[in-house]
Write a structure and sequence with these properties.
Oligomer: single chain
Strand order of the largest sheet: 1-2
Number of domains: 1
Order of helices and strands: HHHHHEE
Shape: globular
Largest sheet: 2 strands, antiparallel
Helix content: 40-55%
């Protein structure tokens, strides 16, 4: 892994955060297909980067442990990706006549 300049600990953190993001998306009912269509793949990439860099992992894990198990949960306010998750749920999302997503 040294080819990519990441230590084992850094790589584990990246993988852990990616899994955490997937869990939050599932909990809030965010649509993975919608996530991939927001602004091309830019929004999805930016969302991943925000989760990887986020310093609120503990709060996120606690929120997952204590939030409702229903996929209709509202994203936590402390989350830097809360607006992105709402967009992935289709809130405030509209499509142009061409089928392109307009946000």
């Amino acid at each position: 892994m040294t080819d990519f300049c990441y230590s084992r600990a850094a790589l584990n953190r990246i993988l852990r955060r990616a899994a955490l993001m997937d869990s939050v998306m599932q909990r809030v009912g965010a649509n993975h297909d919608a996530a991939r269509t927001l602004d091309g793949v830019t929004a999805s990439f930016e969302g991943r980067v925000k989760c990887i860099a986020c310093d609120r992992e503990r709060e996120c894990l606690e929120w997952l442990a204590h939030s409702q198990a229903a996929a209709s949960s509202v994203p936590p306010q402390f989350c830097p990706n809360a607006a992105y998750f709402r967009r992935c749920r289709g809130e405030g999302v509209h499509f142009e006549p061409s089928g392109r997503l307009r946000t």
